[in-house]
Each structure stands twice: as structure tokens, then as C-alpha cells.
């Protein structure tokens, strides 16, 4: 039976932080628009900032649907499910905001991700989510699956990019600056990564 929570703490926080993958779901306001569902991984790229706020790193990819939907309406749901141990599914429904490289909050937020080298993954934004509803459900039908490790392919692909070449890569992609549905996506030109202290 599902249960609602007031905050992300204790057992709930421990469960979320122990998972190796989570999923994000967003959609445009237009009822005919494209619903986006994305898997997110890479250990160290997700953080609980406080009892109602979480964040994750948004890396280079072929589109920017999540960013576009958040810029339009902010609605987002994050979901984690147990692939080992006791069955459990946790969803955080909330309001998300993409924080871009030229935002004054960038360096402070990056402090929550000490194990991530931002230069090796084409880091383009930090997604900050304020929880409005937190729920869990049983997850009885979720299969057991084993985590073997993070794939090295993303880092090996984007580690060779400079800020300038990454911007060129984004400019060439059809669904980066503008979403599949024509919404503003990643603001280009891409600002350089801020220097950290």
C-alpha cells in the first residue's frame, strides 16, 4: 500500500541515495506534446540538498526535452525502484528548474557532487527539484537486476570536448536548442564551465 511523506529523510533518503539509476518524467503544457521519460545514472550525479530539495547533473546528449519542459512549466516526477533487496518504488513529484553554467548558484550547487569531474561528461545544467508530493509504493512486480558498474562510454565520448567544441556539437543537434515540440531548450551558445575555487 502506498504511503505519503512530508520530507525526504531517514529510511526514504537512504533508499534514494543507494539506487544506481532513477527516472525523470516531464511533459509540455500542450496536451498533444511529447511526454519525456529519461533514465539517469552515473554514481555521484544525484544529491539530496535538504529534506525537500534534490538535484542531479544534466549531461550532454542528443536532446534537451527535460530542460525544455522545465523552462516552460517546471513539472517533473523523479522515480527510483529497488532492483535488489526489499521491493520499493519512490516517487518525488515536484517543481524543477535547470540551473545553467552562467548562473551564480552553479559553484555552490556543484559542491554537492564532489565525485564528479564536470569536464569529462559535457555537463550542461544542474536540475534542482523542490518536492511537492513524496510517495512510495510496493514495487512487487519490479524484477531483480544486478548493478555491474557505470558505463565508461559517456565520459570517454565527452572528455575530449572543449567548451567550444561542445557548443558546436550542441548547435548541430536538432533537438538541443529547441525541443521536439518546438519549445526553448538549452540556451546556446553554451557558456564556459565556471572555474571552481
Automatic annotation (TrEMBL):
SUPFAM superfamilies: FMN-binding split barrel. Coiled coil: none annotated. It comes from the Bacteria. Pfam families: PNPOx_N. InterPro entries: Pyridox_Oxase_N, Split_barrel_FMN-bd. Residues 10-138 form the Pyridoxamine 5'-phosphate oxidase N-terminal domain. This is Pyridoxamine 5'-phosphate oxidase family protein.
